[in-house]
């Protein structure tokens, strides 16, 4: 009987956290429809403008800590663990990768673009 209780406790501990995460992800997916909206980035001298159907906002260059290339994305970090991720393919196909990097450097952003070309 004791082994049954121990076994059930172990099983409950192993499945509780993934269950909580799954419920949280599903709840956020249903509640946050704005996250799934298509949006457009505009980069200019005042900062990064994000425009979607139900919202728009601007991040000033002074609020952007660094720009970093990670795998296939150019990441604009606003905080150490919060970044806008823009696919490199989209930027390169528009022909604006170098001007975008120059714009960030011009406004004093720490640009670390050529460090992570491929991950091992």
Explain this structure to me?
With 120 residues, the chain is an alpha+beta fold. The protein has 3 helices and 7 strands, in the order αββββββααβ. It has a 4-stranded mixed beta sheet with strand order 6-5-4-7. Strands 1-2-3 form a 3-stranded antiparallel beta sheet, with no helix packed on it. The chain is elongated. Residues 115-120 have low confidence and may be disordered.
Protein structure class: alpha+beta
Which strand order spans the largest sheet, edge to edge or round the barrel?
6-5-4-7
Q: What characteristic shape results from the CA principal axes? A: elongated
Largest sheet: 4 strands, mixed
What is the number of beta strands? 7
- Give the SSE order as H and E letters: HEEEEEEHHE
Q: Tell me the number of helical segments per DSSP (H or I, 4 or more residues long).
A: 3
Low-confidence stretches: 115-120
Mean of residue pLDDT values = 85
Measured as a percent range, the helix fraction is 25-40%
Oligomeric state: single chain
Main features:
7 strands, 32% strand, three-stranded antiparallel β-sheet, alpha+beta, 39% helix, 3 helices, four-stranded mixed β-sheet, elongated, 120 residues
Topology, pairings included?
Elements: H1 2-31, E1 39-44, E2 47-52, E3 56-60, E4 66-70, E5 73-79, E6 82-87, H2 88-94, H3 97-106, E7 110-112
Parallel strand pairs: 4-7
Antiparallel strand pairs: 1-2, 2-3, 4-5, 5-6
Short description:
The chain has helices at residues 2-31, 88-94, 97-106, and strands at 39-44, 47-52, 56-60, 66-70, 73-79, 82-87, 110-112.
């Amino acid at each position: 009987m004791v082994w049954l209780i121990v076994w059930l406790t172990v099983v409950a501990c192993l499945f509780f956290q993934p269950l909580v995460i799954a419920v949280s992800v599903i709840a956020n997916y249903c509640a946050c429809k704005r996250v799934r909206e298509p949006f457009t980035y505009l980069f200019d001298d005042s900062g990064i403008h994000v425009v979607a159907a139900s919202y728009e906002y601007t991040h000033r260059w002074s609020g952007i800590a660094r720009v970093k290339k990670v795998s296939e994305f150019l990441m604009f970090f606003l905080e150490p663990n919060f970044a806008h991720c823009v696919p490199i393919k989209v930027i390169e196909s528009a022909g604006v990768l170098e001007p975008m990097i120059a714009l960030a450097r011009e406004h004093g952003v720490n640009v670390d673009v050529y460090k992570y070309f491929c991950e091992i």
